[in-house]
Amino acid sequence: MPDMRAFFDAKGCAVIGASANPTKAGRQILANMIAAGYDRGLFPVNASGGEILGLPVYASVDAIDAPVELVIIAAPAAATPDIVAQMKRRMDERGDLRAVVCAAAGFAELKNAEGEGHQALLAGFCKENGIRLLGPNCVGVIDVNNKIDTTFIAGTAHVPGGISFVSQSGAVGAWLLMSWASMPAGGVGFNKFITVGNMADADIIESLAHAGADEATRALGVYIEGSPESRRLVETAAAVARKKPVVVLKVGRTDEGAQAASSHTGSLAGSDALYEGAFNQYGIVRARNVEELSDTLRAFDALPLPKGDGVFILTQAGGPGIICVDELSSTNLFKPSLVSDATKQALKECLPPIASICHPEGHADITAAAGAEHHVRSLEAVLRDPSVHAVLFITVATLFLDLAGMARGMVEMIERLRKEGIDKPVFPAILAGNWTQESRGILEKAGHPSFESPDRAVRALVAMRRYSLFRERSR
């Protein structure tokens, strides 16, 4: 069988089950393909005919008088025999179909004879004709660079970036993309997005290998429920992790969770302890929830790996700073940066007199009296110190703090230091809510991820340090 490129570089796409009804998946898929910028021939298919979103509607796939390499099925599972018959006629006449994405549900996941029969018919036709099949019961794929979005997820921001994500759950994938679209900068950039559904053909293993091999992928995220080939799954992720970070959200940690995973996709969750051990051995980063998955992927995509274990906490608020200290101390991966006397003097000169500098070491409470310039100048002083390998930067919105000015100053300063050869990861937690949207947006648009809370920033830093240590051991 050909590889998975057919899903991403197709010339000509037919959407079976396209609808003029904005509440239907077939309408949203068309809208998403248009929004993604797909311009290689888009053809709605519906027996009712007419026009949808300015596109003429065809009665069947074989009636389209232009090349069609990709078919997206959004029609009910009961229509499978008719759809297969249409595609068979097309293959007999033109032979141009290369890939099918079946977004419809009602197949083998129902565990009844009718659903299993429909899936066997569709999968059998595709296999006989060398056509790749994704699904059934999947959300589909997105390739931002190739301008493809076969999903029915609303509001996706098609912003180019280095993150690729592969998921056994369409809902988790949609959760992630919709969260990214609501970020302060108007969308987190990503590369590829693949959901596999029932895995009648393309499965989770092939999908993560394909996304991981893409040169535009700088960090790979994977949501896993389970696989009958758990060893091959881990070994495939490990092969990717030797070159770039792989962040896995593996569910089914408990017996109850494993049973729920099995009932969802029919996947065998397998022993969580074995997965955990394999992840640790092969440098695969494990996230415990979707927020941690997102934070970690964004950090890996945008920030350099820390080159050591020295961390400095620069905080304008005492309590959040203590949260950072507790989180860091529990990992045994870091030590407070012992900055030089010259750095301490620089901090003293650029901060309000009431600031607490290096009590304890590796920590400066710049206090609520600190303005935008205090934040930026103190951050620069810390970044210039050789003992500092990463900075946790915390501030809380106040009526007298120009957060937007602070963010602009940070962007300018970090870029200036990079030109001097000083490039260290900074983890800003700007608290909290709507007060911080403008400042976080300034940072995000400039490629500097920000975090919702101090503990989330720490967990992203911890993941990067663990992966950095794995890379050092693997040399």
Give a verbal description of the structure.
This protein has 15 helices and 20 strands. By secondary structure, it is of the alpha/beta class. The chain folds into three domains: 138 residues, Rossmann fold (3-Layer(aba) Sandwich); 150 residues, Succinyl-CoA synthetase domains (Rossmann fold); 169 residues, Rossmann fold. Strands 9-8-11-10-12-13-14 form a seven-stranded mixed beta sheet, with helices on both faces. α1 links the parallel β1 and β2. α10 packs parallel to α15 and α11 packs antiparallel against α12. The two termini are 35 Å apart.
How does the overall form come out from the CA principal axes? elongated
- Relative strand content: 15-25%
**Total domain count:** 3
Largest sheet, in brief, is:
7 strands, mixed
Number of helices: 15
Report the CATH architecture of the largest domain.
Answer: 3-Layer(aba) Sandwich
Superfamily at the CATH H level of the largest domain? Answer: Succinyl-CoA synthetase domains
Instruction: Report the count of strand segments.
Output: 20
**Cα Rg:** 25 Å
Distance between the termini: 35 Å
Features:
single chain; 475 residues; alpha/beta; Rossmann fold; 7-stranded mixed beta sheet; 6-stranded mixed beta sheet; 20 strands; 16% strand
In short:
Helices cover 40% and strands 16% of the residues. The chain is α/β, with parallel strands linked by helices and 475 residues long.
